Structures are given as C-alpha cells and as structure tokens.
Amino acid sequence: MSPKHLKERADLLRRFGLDAGSVNHVAVHFPSIFTIPHKRIKALESLLKEKCLFTMAQVSKILRTSPQLLLEELDDVEYKFQFAYFRMGIKHAEIVQSGFFQASLAEINKRIQFLERLGHYQTPDKKGQTQIVNPKLKRIIRASEQDFVTEIACSSIEEYEVFKKLLADEEEQRKQQKETMEELSDSENDNGADSE
Fold first, then answer.
1. CA 105 to the chain's CA centroid
2. What are the distances in angstroms from CA 142 to CA 29, 34, 103, 135, 145?
3. Model confidence over 39-51: pLDDT tens digits?
4. Around Cβ 151, how many Cβ atoms within 10 Å?
C-alpha cells in the first residue's frame, strides 16, 4: 500500500474518534483495517449510529474493540444488536462495555438458553424488569467455559455438554421441519400452477 493510502485510512479512523494509540492497536490486531473499502467502514458506522442508535463515542469504542465487525454482513451485525437490546433487554452502554460484539452470537445464545433453562436468567419484560437478578452480560460473555458453567450457571461441565448436544438436536429438528414445510409449500404451488 502506498504511504498516501495508509495516511488517508489513518485520517479516516481518527475522524471516527480513534486516536493514534487506538489506530495502532487496531492495526496490530486487525491489519486488514487498511484494506477494507472506505464505503464498508462508513456503512458500518451508519448502521451503528442510525439504526442501532449508538453515540459516536460508543461507535469508536466498538470499532476499537471489535474491528472484525467490518467483515461481517451488516444484517448480521444489526441482528446481533437487536438480540442484545430486545431479547436480552441490555442497554447501549452495557452492550459496549461488555464486549458483546467480540463474542459470537451463537455462543452467547447458547449460554443464555442454558442459564434460562436452569432458572438463572430471565428475559426482561417490556419495562426491563425481571423477577430474578440476571448475571451481568460481561460475565456471561467473558468467562471461560469452565468458569461460566461452574460459577455463573452453578452446574457441571457434563450437564453443559449434554445441553449443547440436545440444543444441536433441537436445531437440526427445526431445520428439517423448515425444509419439509418449504417442500410442501413448493409442491402445493406446483400443483396449483398445474391445475390452471
């Protein structure tokens, strides 16, 4: 890359609130930040500010701590935010502070479902209230699997392994049901077209 291109990208990142130290940190841990198209960075910024309603300071922290979001589909990023905000009832500041975007949604969802089934997590109602005190999102996300199971879920690794297998089986059954429904729908559409 030309020095001019590197300087332009560094300037762009600074406009997003990343100081020189932050740009260096991101560059070391995510060097492809300099090759991703300018439009892609602007599109992610726009999504986070306009659709997800993060402040510019929060967008800067998300870019600094989770630059890999630039490689994800924007619809997936938005869905991940909606999962935290609507499904889990987590506010913007906690989403940013917890490192939510650093973890995979599949893993977060698996942990939340495990806690729910054990009675250690409850989805907040429309007012954000729960009848139990939910563990902090940061603890759920950042704990090692061992710590998550033993300290947060108060369970055993064996029980969590069985849960993961059952969850995978449930997902496979849902997938097969969906495919069966699509096949039935397609065959009904074909029969309807034949009768015309």
1. 4
2. 18, 28, 8, 12, 9
3. 999 999 999 999 9
4. 13
